[in-house]
Structures are given as structure tokens and as C-alpha cells.
Amino acid sequence: MNVRYFDECKWNDVADGLIFEFVDDSGQKLAEVALRNAESKLWKFEVFVPEQYQLDGTHPAGAVYTCAAAKRVAETILLNTIVVRS
Q1: Into how many domains does the chain fold?
Q2: pTM of whole model > 0.90?
């Protein structure tokens, strides 16, 4: 597994503010945040981690109330698994 540094990763808006992807410097998608329900303002996050960090073969995922919260949860999961703060 190669080391990924947090300051080399970034959030990309891929669907006019409805879907965001967190990618490393090589362009590999590490996480995705998407609007799940506009009426309830629920945002879904999914973090793409190696198998050793998965539970029963599934990636960590969930829904929260705001986009900022979804991004923060995804970043926290990544910082505690495959991304290193420099």
C-alpha cells in the first residue's frame, strides 16, 4: 500500500454541487459524498478503503445532515486508515 498524504488530496465537485469526490494526487477516488435526499438535506458518504478496513466486505458509509459533515466524517475515516497528515 502506498502512502497518501492529506495535503496532496482534494475534493472535486463532479456534479454541480450534488456529488463530491475526494481524490489523491494520482486521481484515485478515496471517498465520495453525494446528496441523497434534497428534502431532508441528507448527504451520503462512502469511503473506499482496502479490504482490511472493511466490515463484511463493505466500505464505511452513512448519511448525515450536511455536505460539510459528510466530508468531515469521510476525511476522519481516511486519516485513521490510509491517509497520513504530513
Answers
A1: 1
A2: yes
